[in-house]
Design goal:
Layout lengths: L1 H20 L18 H13 L26 E12 L2 E7 L12 E11 L5 E8 L10 E7 L5 H8 L5 E9 L10 E7 L3 H12 L7 E8 L8 H10 L3 E7 L9 E2 L4 H7 L7 E6 L2 H7 L14 H5 L7 E3 L1
Parallel strand pairs: 7-8, 7-11, 8-9, 9-10, 11-12
Antiparallel strand pairs: 1-2, 1-6, 2-5, 3-4, 3-6
Helix pairs in contact: 1-2, 2-5
Organism: Cephalotus follicularis
GO molecular function: cytochrome-b5 reductase activity, acting on NADH
InterPro entries: CBR-like (IPR001834), Cbr1-like_FAD-bd_dom (IPR008333), FAD-bd_FR_type (IPR017927), Flavoprot_Pyr_Nucl_cyt_Rdtase (IPR001709), FNR_nucleotide-bd (IPR039261), OxRdtase_FAD/NAD-bd (IPR001433), Riboflavin_synthase-like_b-brl (IPR017938)
Length: 328
């Protein structure tokens, strides 16, 4: 399976690179760090695929035709998925590709997430303890045979450290999907998005669902906040999407700008939201996903029972109602 993937990736890359930039270049991977030398070729390909491909380009999973309604996920059972390869996308974030039966679909709707778990020692009775975390795949939900997770690795993160320890051939236990927002084409005229860090993952899932559908006329406005320019995940990918789709507008802001930074500076403010998001309306939906501090500032966090909870923060101050805002 890996050999076939390498060949398909090698054949697909030059075509996509020409379409995206209007000409051939010798390398799509300059400056790219590969954590495992043995998988440098495929890791570089995945990094390229996420930074430079767009819904207008040919995706690898389109090579195979529909073969049946097989679903790889199970919402009631932990399923093992094998790590195929990995690629570093920033100083502390990596892409992980997990494989499954290529005749199957993952079974994920937009927008949904997965539950992952890893063993964490034993309890007093000798039973295995687990750490469990939800993640949103950034691969196309219709992809057959694989899904991709974008993980930010924290020094004290129990689950992210488990991811960092995985090597190709290792397995990850997954259950799902867990449905978040059930997206349908043209459900709103304008969708605004506020994301921080890895909060970009559910946004990207919705963005690509809209942009790959020629009958979906939804306007999208994304405000994306990070600590520094180097922390902006998949920026090249997002920029290509925005450049090739006039219905997608993106505004970046960072806490610690570099000398040549030309985007926003500081936390997402009321003025940024006022200028960068669609105004309150029955035809407007604002999606929010980020770390707890950002959520409190923007919209208020979810309730303790994981329901949407009360709308607070700058979105409430700007006149949005709870029906106009969805918190991932």
């Amino acid at each position: 399976m890996a050999t076939t993937f390498f060949k398909r990736l090698a054949n697909a890359t030059p075509v996509a690179f020409t379409d995206a930039f209007g000409g051939h270049r010798k390398s799509a991977f300059s400056g790219f760090q590969v954590p495992f030398g043995a998988i440098a070729a495929v890791s570089g390909g995945i990094f390229y695929f996420y930074n430079f491909s767009s819904p207008n380009l040919a995706h690898l999973d389109q090579v195979n035709e529909e073969t049946g309604p097989k679903v790889a996920l199970n919402p009631n059972k932990w399923i093992e998925f094998k790590l195929q390869d990995t690629a570093r996308v920033s100083h502390n974030a990596q892409l992980f590709r997990f494989s499954f039966d290529p005749t199957s679909k993952l079974g994920l709707d937009v927008a949904s997430c997965l539950l992952t778990r890893a063993p964490l020692g034993q309890d007093a009775e000798g039973k295995t303890k687990y750490v469990t975390r939800p993640y949103t795949p950034i691969s196309d939900p219709d992809s057959k045979g694989y899904f991709d997770l974008l993980i930010k690795v924290y020094p004290e993160g129990k689950m992210s450290q488990h991811f960092a320890s995985l090597k190709p051939g290792d397995v990850l236990e997954v259950k799902g999907p867990i449905e978040k927002l059930r997206y349908s084409p043209n459900m709103k005229k304008h969708i605004g998005m506020i994301a921080g860090g890895t909060g970009i993952t559910p946004m990207l899932q919705v963005i690509e669902a809209i942009l790959k559908n020629p009958d979906d006329n939804t306007q999208i406005s994304l405000l994306y906040a990070n600590v520094s320019p180097d922390d902006i995940l998949l920026k090249q990918k997002l920029d290509v999407l925005a450049d090739s789709h006039p219905n997608l507008k993106i505004f970046y802001t960072v806490d610690n700008p570099s000398k040549n930074w030309k985007g926003g500076k500081g936390y997402i403010s009321k003025d940024m939201a006022l200028k960068g998001l669609p105004g309150p309306s029955d035809d407007t939906l604002i999606l929010v996903c980020g770390p707890p501090g950002m959520m409190e500032h923007i919209s208020g966090d979810k309730a303790k029972n994981y329901s949407q909870g009360e709308l607070t923060g700058i979105l409430k101050e700007l006149g949005y109602t709870e029906q106009m805002v969805y918190k991932f």
